[in-house]
Amino acid sequence: MRLILARHGNTFAPSDKVVWAGQTNDLPLVEAGLKQAQIAAKYLLEQAVKPQAIYCSPLQRTGKFADILADVLKYPGKPIVDARLNEIDYGQWTGLSDQEVIDQFGADELKQWNEFSRWPKNGNWGDSESKITADVQSFASELQNNYASDDTIIAVTSNGRLRYFLTLIDNEFESRRTNKSLKVKTGNICELQCTNGKFQLNYWDKNPIQ
Fold first, then answer.
1. pTM score, two decimals?
2. pLDDT digits (tens, 9 = 90+) for 160-170
3. pLDDT averaged over the chain?
4. What is the rounded distance in angstroms from the CA atom of residue 63 to the CA atom of residue 11?
5. Which CATH entry fits the domain spanning 2-17+27-88+127-206: 1.10.287.70, 3.40.50.1240, 3.40.50.2000, 3.60.15.10?
6. 86, 92, 93, 97: CA torsion to nearest 10
7. What is the DSSP string of 48-114?
8. What is the DSSP code (8-state) at residue 162?
């Protein structure tokens, strides 16, 4: 089974204040984000991707991105909404700029998350790292049970959640923590392959226009 993961496109225009957007502030895609979805869809079409299923989180930014993929790839039906793909609840960080997070919670807290995905001690984030990891593993296990070994599945999610799909691969998450390469840019895609119940990484944070 091939699992293609996409991070939704931009939710901020150049003139907008960029803030932390978790599962509790449901921002729409801006024009650039819609274009990113078209670019990703065109790339997947050129790669002859024919998904057996397309999933997204309950957030409109992932739903719209998934809708565009479905339309371009001529996927019959609507993307399947799954809460296990929802973005992290950033608690009191939600709606703050990076500088405001630094001012209220400290520069080290921000650095530890941005560079190493270490959950902050302050800010009252929802759920927990273990809950997010369990959700990802549950979602992946369900895909393995429901689809054939040669099927392709697409899942559209957000940056905080997305990186935890690396926990499906032995040592990959911790390795990328060390070299600070967990993050996926907006509109970029990743691909995992599951063979005989074991996941491996084909690529991570791929820009579909390159």
1. 0.97
2. 999 999 999 99
3. 97
4. 13
5. 3.40.50.1240
6. 130
7. T---SEEEE-SSHHHHHHHHHHHHHTT-SS-PEE-GGGPPP--GGGBT--HHHHHHHH-HHHHHHHH
8. H
Among residues 40, 59, 73, which one has the least CA distance to residue 152?
73
pLDDT one-digit tens code per residue, 35-75? 999 999 999 999 999 999 999 999 999 999 999 999 999 99
| pLDDT given for residue 127 in this prediction | 87
Q: What count of other Cβ atoms lies within 10 Å of the Cβ of residue 175?
A: 13
Helix, strand, coil % in the chain, rounded to nearest 5: 40, 15, 40
The continuous run of DSSP H or E covering 143 comes out as helix 129-146
What are the extents of the domains in the chain? 2-17+27-88+127-206
